Amino acid sequence: MDDVDRQIVALLRQDARAPLKTIAGKIGLARSSIRARIARLEAEQLITGYRAEVALEKAGGVAAMVCLELASTPMPQVVAAIVADPAVDRCYSLAGDIDLLVEISHMNSAGLNDARDRLSVLPGVVRARTFLILKRDKAG
Question: 98 with 37, same domain?
Answer without folding.
Answer: no
